[in-house]
Amino acid sequence: MKNTIHNGIYRDSSIVVSACVSAGKTVCRELARFPSALMAAVCYACIRKRGVYDVIVCSHIGDFLFTVGYLQALDQKLKKERGAAYKRLRLVADRKFEKLLCFYPGLDCEYLAWKPRSLAAVLAANRSRSGRAFLYKLHSVSIVEPAAAFTDGVSYAFRDPGLSLQGCIQYGALGLEPDADLIRPSMSYGIRQKPGKRALLCPFAQVMEAVQIKTYMDALADWLLNSGYEVYANGAWSGMSDKIRVVYWELDRFFHNCFAIELVIGIRSGLLDLAACSSATVVALYPRGSSCSQYYDIRRIFPEKKNNYQYILTDDQDKDCKAIRKMAMPKQERKE
What's the chain look like in SS3? Predict the structure, then answer.
């Protein structure tokens, strides 16, 4: 809330001092960020190409999947708006994502793989008011980093009836219309292996953490093994059974293998966004008391697929495990 002083009639020294201190902090913060932010922005300006529109995306898997999914819609929008001045799109992202592009067979864009340090520098420029203003004036770049977008307010998000990560990217970062088509990664080549009685546990996430997740993973691993599943785990955790096979798959292999797996259970992460586009049943777990289940709703990435589920953990582990097992079971085996 802003306080206004009119012609000296109303004066409150504490308000004036507070306003001055706040303004001073803002100025100092901007001055501290300005050199590095401006340097990163200028470096980017030097490598941009005439007629090429860059989409720079942060290193989170879910953000990347939604961004690539909307590139065809963005390409059509730019062709309509810019005409002959526009040539093509260029996707700028972490090099770890490059192999995922083969799962988007109709995508037509250039890919520029950056090292994490270079990518972080330009993203940092976008978080600075001065760097963001500089990049905006280039009229040739969209930066996708939803977490940073909230610093500028979320007025664009009200176009999305259910505030979500997808809406942040569709409406906010890329400025697309509500009817923009979302293309999902797919297996359009090779022989698909029929899903066997295999399960994959994913106990780790880059953004979300659940203190109690390891005990849940132990309980779920025991249930899966006793139910005859071949159990894999994307990373090891203490107390894990020796019967579980620990794997460290790269993203393209992870997606490919999900078509040979019947069930994926894990703490909500970008990997589960990728798994949600496969044939596997996916159960995404949120930490106790989490308020992110709407924003990161796993079901929104592929609404037509009915075997993507999510669950917020509680204080009752027995109740939670029973609910998770019910979601994980094939429909014909469930008992109400």
Answer: CCCCCCCCCCCCHHHHHHHHHHHHHHHHHHHHHHHHHHHHHHHHHHHCCCCEEEEEECCCHHHHHHHHHCHHHHHHHHHHHHHHHCCEEEEEEEHHHHHHHHHCCCCCCEEEEECHHHHHHHHHHHHCHHHHHHHHCCCCEEEECHHHHHHHCCHHHHHCCCCCHHHHHHHHHCCCCCCCCCCCCCCCCCCCCCCEEEEEEECCCCCCCCCCHHHHHHHHHHHHHHCCCEEEECCCCCCCCCCCEECCCCHHHHHHHHCCEEEEEEECCHHHHHHHCCCCEEEEEECCCCCCCCCCCHHHHCCCCCCEEEEECCCCHHHHHHHHHHHHCCHHHCCC
- Report the 10 Å Cβ neighbour count for 105: 11
In this prediction, what percent of the chain has a pLDDT beyond 90?
45
The crossing angle, in degrees rounded to 10, of helices 317-328 and 213-226 is 50
| Residue 125: both structure tokens together | 């420029």
Please, which residues have CB within 8 angstroms of residue 163's CB and are 6 or more apart in sequence? 154, 157, 294, 295
In the chain, the largest separation of any two C-alpha atoms, in whole Å, equals: 80
Residue 6 pLDDT more than 50? no
Backbone dihedral angles phi then psi of residue 52, each to the nearest 5 degrees: -100, 130
pLDDT in tens, 8-39: 333 344 443 444 444 444 444 544 444 555 56
Amino acid, res. 285: L
Tokens coding 91: 């996707």
User: Distance of CA 60 to CAs 79, 94, 128, Å?
Assistant: 28, 9, 20
Q: Pick the range with the lowest mean pLDDT from 23-32, 150-159, 166-175, 254-263.
A: 23-32
Instruction: Give the integer Cα–Cα distance in Å for 4 and 22.
Output: 15
